[in-house]
Design a protein that fits this description.
By secondary structure, this protein is an alpha+beta fold. The protein is 24% helix and 47% strand. Strand 4 and strand 5 form a beta hairpin.
Length: 133
Amino acid sequence: MKQDRPISANPVLAPVEREKAAVAAGDPAAYFAVLTEDAIFMPPQSLAKSGEELRNWLSAFLRNFQIEWLSFASTELEVVESLAYHTFTYTWRATPRAGGEGKVASGKGLHILRRQADGSWKIAREIWNAVPS
């Protein structure tokens, strides 16, 4: 089903909004709060990351870069029982916190979300690819 409502109006996608806010704020604890315990990320040009490796990788990314979201569009959402997939496009500017020029990147991605016992949703898997500039 196409995601016509704003992303913030859909409770399944609430963790995606919180993920974006955590990235912009550089807040690892807020980021980890939207992930399932067994979350796996599949970043571009890298091996899959999970567990402590994922936490260390995300923390280093947030520590080293200030992210400014230039655009984010939810392109599709499908919910089947306790699982959902969500596709998106993005453009952000990543500026090194140590100084230097920011770099704009655009791409597309996929979240797999899992409903929790309390009815809330969390991100279980994430994969994205940058569009070559």
